[in-house]
Design a protein that fits this description.
TIM Barrel; homotetramer; 12 helices; globular; two-stranded antiparallel ribbon; alpha/beta
């Protein structure tokens, strides 16, 4: 794995046929679809991957199948965020055994911990992990964020190799860029795709953007244009990203709307099933129709796998 | 199990010797200590029990040992709250196999769900559970609460038998009391012990109070005095509860301070180890000394198990 | 004014005919209606009184008229909460000139201050006030609460004479009761009427309850029953309070629903106009009808002023 | 006033000698200092201007003096945000009389209103205003934001001419850019200076950046570089902005730290007094020393007015 890891690393959805059953054929199509788009890696079992909603047996199966299907073409990153220390370690071990390249960790998210507790937690956990670690900042869901002093401190540990910031807080991201001077190999990625161009201009290395599940090339090209400083092309591609954000991600209500929208698009494109693990459920008729119109507008439906 | 379940049901701490090792001897002493206090049940794997921080292997062991040690003297309730549907079902099955009496469920707590999603989640989950279910309202940690309309709807399902409210919102609790007319067998319990007397006066059936781990008799007597309408005695015992709340629960900072205080007290009383699962850790010297002074003031230290 | 002030002190709505025009006749009827109910005081320009939404000219007129109409029958308390120090002092001076008895202050509510800043603010403000001061704890609207250490410190200032707690946090209230031993003359009142009985059982002195605008006797009787320890009568009256809370206060949506419901009820009872200062507006037809049904159910409509 | 208004419009601090006394000489120096820096306008009585903390007499004096001192060299925008409709109108009238160019309005910030209420509020208020209006989005302080549907609706009113977004939410800002096609004359400005370059790249028109009080040229040059697409120069200047943000704005704690830091810098530069209106107070010795070191590092102290 290059360090820093540069480009688009889609937070892969988990194709399901039921609450404890992978859509195996869909998973294969999805991985091909994404890798064809020119991405720099695959991140499984994150928020978009419904990681916390999946049983451990299925998580293990997903890790193994994904690593096998990726065939080393791109690095595989696996989310190990958990409220239970020992389960995080277990998932990390399965990941190493399956050939994954790194693991990704947001703070334990039930009872909120203070920063000193979070730092001590990292001190205890990292030595137990067989793979290098990315921090995953997601305060809206974990209550606690990796404060920048905690990130700075984590940089002193060579087993921690990067940060994915999904806070949506651009000031935080700019400050995180300012820390890069302490670790030239550190990877800094942005979560919300609406901020991908901003993040790359600011000095970040790329994005973990949900839309890259169904339209990977768009995000890869936007990344490259931003990296090249081609402001005109950036504006054009960014407008498409905003179009998706303004429409597809607002079809549903509630916090799960983005994941539902992405899975629905993938289903309409013939890539994989859109079953959602509880407590969520797929879009029904009227929402599905809206997504179809949107995909037609994006000229994506002719790419449809037959 | 009586219905409604009336009295004090302590949310039992989990005695640990390490992050994946039960303090087996401590567990036995703790269960005896609590049952001796006259409680109406035991609730394991809740927030105070550090449920979400424990690995599943250890959860299973705890369920089995607790049911065996309780020997049917009081009903055992087991927390099955999880972000993953299938893991909740697994824990519920282990509970039934071990002889537990009921399971307890807060909303999935990673990505917040809307109330219709929460209702559908209950509709899907309850038929999979081999034991009756208590709802557990804990919005400060789960983000989402069981809105009262959702509680009302749940009352139509005879497999759902009660509500433990830890919201700290007395208006919510009074409204929940107002729903009892729809289900005479429904159990309504309060979480925060500072509100135990209020809850019983209001028409609730008792409390799930953390302090009952180390001082069960105090809470049991307060419950009985409130039930009997003995306002003078209530005031006297409530003052002791507030003394514990004002002191023991404020020794630490951060949200885990209450659990740390209770475990430290139990350790000083010789009942069990005070090891905490990550990301938390036990009180060190200075805090421990404060807890010791407090226990001395409560005349609890002479009860100390040798 | 007695100290502590004991009983029901309604947070009086402000009868308006337009955004800058008092309903003068309605104000007179309202004051008579409330005082007839046996209340212990009048609190104007609080949250229910739409204080922050009213221009200063109108606030001054309201203070003068209310003091004149109250004719010393009950003490008048005036809200001086403001983001601007000098305006709080101005309103306090008008209050003293008009013959009011005390002023009431929540923390400045634009940019949130830390507790040391809040303490220093009180240190600077209280010497400028010509009347004794009640603290008003309302964190959901002011962002900042009077932490209990700040309340304890305020008790050392004899010009600060009490606390009205509208936090809805019963643990906070119980802790505030615990501070009363430091100031036997200190008044402790509860805001949410659903918690009035709890507050009096706990050792509080009464309530500042919005429903006492249109049905003052109900709250006065509930207060007296709680004070007398008549648990049976408390339960009966409390059920009526909950009925109002469950119905009238849920006719509207948004945070202003309670005030709209109270004003609508007063309008239907013929007491005063229900005009609301911007950014809010009165209930329209369908909501008004619901309120009418509710008042009929409470047998209040026959009391209607012709 | 150009439309859209393009460039840097500093949110001017209010130089004070006491809680109700302007630092008149300091105000004159400050206005010259800022205008010398090449700004596109002055915005007074915003958050940085401590608008809500100032009495109305002083607000009027500030408006009049500022307009007189600006001498038409740049447009003057005046904050009229208030919880009371009639006071907002009053301040707007004083502004028009004094020769100001526009007024600026955040949502009323005591009791949070729903979006339909906010829309109706604008419908009622705008016809009463003698000057065109900018919306000011500041949800962390006003609780309520101008949802984008409300912004879109406001664009249909030609008297509403722009939006200043201080949400810190870059997704919101990108969506607001997407609305510009509906009103070519609409001005869109960003609040947080850390996001100034991002905002201009995105298609915004400039910034309302607090640091432009003491170092206006830096922000003006950053704006111009971003507008010109000079990515190298942007990176260099943005790094200076981040240096100020990372240091000066973190000298204090609490939400007022930024304003205190800016006022302290201005005092050290000899521009104006750093008195803060209650409930805040100026930095004392140790913090002041830190600010001095920072200014020395920025080579600003030699510019010091003697």
């Amino acid at each position: 794995m290059k360090s820093p890891l540069t480009g688009i690393v889609p937070p892969m959805v988990t194709p399901l046929r039921g609450r404890d059953e992978l859509d195996v054929a869909g998973l294969e199509r999805l991985i091909e679809h994404i890798i064809d788009g020119g991405v720099a890696g695959l991140f499984i079992l994150g928020t978009t991957g419904e990681g916390p909603s999946l049983g451990y047996r299925l998580r293990k199966e997903l890790i193994e199948r994904t690593c096998r299907l990726a065939r080393g073409r791109v690095p595989v990153l696996v989310g190990i965020t958990d409220t239970a220390f020992v389960e995080s370690v277990n998932v990390a071990r399965w990941s190493a055994d399956a050939g994954a390249d790194a693991v990704v960790l947001a703070p334990p998210y039930y009872l909120p911990e203070g920063q000193p507790e979070l730092q001590e937690y990292l001190d205890h956990l990292v030595p137990e992990l067989p793979l290098p670690l990315f921090l995953y900042n997601m305060p809206s869901l974990t209550k606690v964020q990796y404060e920048l002093d905690t990130v700075r401190r984590a940089m002193d540990n060579p087993r921690i190799i990067g940060l994915k910031d999904s806070s949506g807080n651009m000031i935080y991201f700019h400050r995180a860029v300012g820390l890069l001077k302490h670790r030239p190999d550190w990877t800094l990625l942005i979560g919300p795709e609406e901020m991908l161009a901003d993040a790359v201009f600011a000095g970040g290395h790329g994005g973990v953007n949900g839309g890259a599940n169904f339209h990977p090339r768009l995000y890869v090209e936007l990344f490259r244009a931003a990296q090249a400083g081609d402001n005109v092309r950036v504006r054009e591609l960014h407008a498409q990203v905003m179009h998706i954000s303004d429409n597809l991600y607002r079809v549903g209500r509630h916090s799960s709307a983005i994941i539902k929208g992405i899975k629905c698009a993938l289903s309409l494109l013939g890539v994989c099933d859109d079953f959602m693990a509880e407590p969520f459920h797929r879009f029904r008729g009227p929402e599905r129709e809206k997504v179809q119109h949107l995909l037609a507008g994006l000229n994506l439906l002719h790419n449809r796998t037959p």
